[in-house]
Amino acid sequence: MFGPQPGAGSIAEPVAQLIEQLGKLPGVGPKTAQRLAYFILRQSSEEARILARAIVQVKERIVYCSICCNLTEHDPCAICANPARDRAVICVVEQPLDILAVERTHSFRGLYHVLHGALSPMDGIGPGEIKIEPLLRRVAEGEVAEVILATNPTMEGDATAMYLTQRLHGNGRSVRVTRPARGLPGGGALEFADDLTLRQALEGRSEHP
Questions:
Q1: What is the pLDDT of residue 208?
Q2: Which domain holds residue 138?
Q3: How far apart are the C-alpha atoms of 165 and 42, rounded to whole Å?
Q4: Is 139 exposed, middle or buried (0-12, 13-18, 19+ CB in 10 A)?
Q5: CB of 118 within 8 A of CB of 157?
Q6: Which residues contact 184 (CB under 8 A, 6 or more apart)?
Q7: Same domain (yes/no): 46, 93
Q8: Global pTM?
Q9: Rounded to 5 degrees, what are φ and ψ at 90?
């Protein structure tokens, strides 16, 4: 909620509602929301319907993969269903977009696990709010030999990696836990790393204490 907009009385109610809803998107401030709203208004009715239909279809057709928790239209997702992938290695990432970043390197042939967030007690995000338990169950099944903790090189990402290391080492199985090399910029997000840096970080991964 941005509160009353300057000159709000001169904005038609449907436009004001559109601006308010667009303003709820991450990284979209009041001015950007206004620009987006008026951009949509300038589009043809057919283009607006295509946009609206795409939003509805995403909500109706996209589900969590029952194996890796990635977003997918078909369960299991294409990566988990691919028999050519190395099922002994799981790369753990915070968000679905991080998978796209790793796949662009063309150097990782294992499977993934999406946490959908990182531990952040200040924001009320604890172990129960992200997909940790499904990961532990996958490892407990016995097929996994290595877990790569590719959480973002941030305070929250590092805390999540440390917590996962403790849980994975305490599950009664001998599983290798690694972390990508620190070629990744501190405080950055995996999805924004260039392909070469990310590939080198994965290839140079080391045991996580």
A1: 75
A2: 84-207
A3: 51
A4: buried
A5: yes
A6: 153, 190, 193, 197, 198, 201
A7: no
A8: 0.79
A9: -120, 130
